Amino acid sequence: MEYNYEKVAQSLRLMYVGNMIIIASILCTILAWIIPPLIFLVSMAVLGGTVISLVGLVKLRSEHQAYRNAVITLVIVFVVGLFANDETIFGALMSMAQDICNLLMTYFVIKGTNAVLQSKGAAGQMELGKKAWRWQLISFGAAFLSGGITLLCLLLSGSLLDSPSLILPLISVFASLAISLVALVYYLRYLKQSSEFLI
């Protein structure tokens, strides 16, 4: 299959830039607590980063079936997100479904990008994609385990407010966040390097 390498590179670059804007905006929320008017700017930056990333993904849809699957999964994420919350069992299930769909979307992006990279003989870059995917799976598993540990401690102690029952959930949450950060770094590095390779 013949790919439009320039279009794929530009789209992956948009996804990378959009995600970087989102990350920077989320980090700025700390400042928004100190300077409340920044909340609006941070919200607009998150929205802008999301739109940029989505435009990149939508532009890819004609390049490979995996990218089309990623766009379909994205639509499902938005629909399921309307019902996701932590207030009801149904909402919690929808939140879990949203997390699974986000994981699938990442899988489809990596699969499509690796197919394009394979057509250019970029075995090393493809390996980075496989590593990014493995870290995504590890991150998903760690988040699931952390939630299970928190729930178990809550059920055993009746409350997470007393110090002894709070320690293990806190450790598991911070470990899960650290693993998620590593997974994000690998994924963003993969997007950036793949876009640079395909130019």
Task: Give a structural overview.
The chain has 199 residues and is an all-alpha fold. It has a domain at 121-199. It contains six helices and no strands. The chain has helices spanning 5-34, 38-60, 65-81, 89-119, 123-157, 163-198. The mean pLDDT is 89.
Radius of gyration over C-alpha positions, nearest whole angstrom: 19 Å
Count every helix, treating DSSP H or I runs of 4 or more residues as helices: 6
Q: What's the total number of strands?
A: 0
Order of helices and strands: HHHHHH
Sketch the major β-sheet: none
Shape: globular
Strand content: under 5%
Helix fraction bin: over 70%
Overall mean pLDDT stands at 89
Structural class given helices, strands, pairing?
Answer: mainly alpha
Point out poorly predicted stretches: none
Distance N to C terminus: 18 Å
Short key terms for the protein model shown above:
about 85% helix, mainly alpha, about 0% strand, about 200 residues, 6 helices
Short summary:
The protein contains six helices and no strands. With 199 residues, the protein is mainly alpha-helical.
Task: Outline the fold blueprint.
Blueprint: H1 5-34, H2 38-60, H3 65-81, H4 89-119, H5 123-157, H6 163-198
Helix pairs in contact: 1-2, 1-6, 3-4, 4-5, 5-6
